[in-house]
């Protein structure tokens, strides 16, 4: 049950400080029991997604949170090697979590009848449910999110005593508990709905592809494409992390998986440890904003805004390309400054050979992307993608043992027809095919090893989902407070009042809120909290709704790169063997585009392919898109040169200052600043071209014989 992708030794011990669930399931009786519970958790989620089990949505959410709270306490105690007393207490809390889920299921019909008028036992179980969720989040993620959620809960109970306009009309204790612990507004609200359906399936999808070797495929393709170019090791990191983002919804998980390979590679070829860690952290966090399959927040955003998933992808595509292009440019300049060449061609794998060997791993990813962009729901797409992945993994194991190539081709054609028949006959065809493949694999040794890999992927996927799931449950307290008290309007009006004087100040206030919240809480609750407050307020100030939510999303991600907490950077620290703070500083430089793109999109929504903005009104939508992309790209190029201090030649202080002024002139939204920025940028380019030409060695002409 050990994950081969896990870091070993000291690195694993250091990583566990930043990821409490970094270790494997213990090889003990207790560990095997927890493994079995995690396995059953995944089976339950798959069964409900495929409608093999079809309980009401409220029960799915309650059982989902029940599994999460049952697992977190004893699993953390077991992985961290706590003593008998602590483990016994952990199992006691686990039993309470199970009791809450059982009560929700057993009393479901009666709870509907007495909604708004809870009995004493309802109050008891409601308090236990809220307390268990708070405790689970605290032990797994630290105190920040529980404290913030606790403040909101206290506001529900005591906000009537605050001065106007912060006060509310007051709510009875039973009303607050009923609102938060039952129904669809508190811990079982929309975040938990999304966690228990889309997010869990996509995490399982990623876990299966990782077990099947997708990380190695990404690394081999990246090495083949850019490994031989200047600074190729860092460019490999950016491409492989961007690709990894298509199957991983967590930037920190991305750092830990791809970083094990890319950070040592960058260091070996001359990059500073801090810079190597910063590149990996920046690229890994960018995986969450990289279409076509983005991070978990994208699915929550689509659900919150009531739009199809491809609308979110459309808004994200240009900013994501600019984000990664910026990171690519920064490492290119750093390599040029330090004279870092690419890897020898004879040491690089072949992309063609890698794809020929692992082509089948790309099929479920391609199917998932096609379904998401064809208007199917993320739940449907995730279920189908996961089913196809399992068919391929189990089918590959069978195909290896077939006697000839002709038989193998016939087998794959037949399996392909079975998969295609899903669209005509439904999920039961795939389930039947999976059952046949499982039986066939169980009959021989190699097949049993494949089944063990699938079993491990199910358990590991459930473990990986725990932080996201508990964060979604706890952040429901904040959403519940907003809906019960109308607190979002109070805070939103403050942002609107600031924006009445200056939209930029409102955006700055929203950005700071995201970065501060992000110091202690993950991207998902950060987005949910801030978008609930700032989204409607920015809409009132004329910012398109998707743009305002993407603004919050971006800065929620960048919070994981920003000191002093910088979770992604500290996750990279044990691999890079460097201070997390130093890595964070380098990551901010590399991720500079991420800090300016959201602001530019607000003033020019065409950057996110949205209507609106003065530019589109004056010149038309296509021209506005082309102009803003060129302007942003040029500004990023100048900023990179200024930060690194290199552009064909090493820059003087005056040249770096000129590049900085030119870059910021194009980012400012003031009359004539674009013209000034382009003019200064052209002057900078001319000066560098002239210096580079002067530095070239003179061409030697052969002497006449």
From TrEMBL:
Q: How does it sit in the membrane?
A: Multi-pass membrane protein
Q: Does the keyword Membrane apply?
A: yes
List the GO cellular component terms. Answer: plasma membrane
Note the InterPro entries from the entry. DctM (IPR010656), TRAP_DctM-Dct_fused (IPR011853)
The keyword Ligase appears for this protein: no
Q: Name one GO molecular function term.
A: transmembrane transporter activity
**Subcellular localization, as worded in the UniProt entry:** Cell inner membrane
Known function: Part of the tripartite ATP-independent periplasmic (TRAP) transport system.
**What's the protein name?**
TRAP transporter 4TM/12TM fusion protein
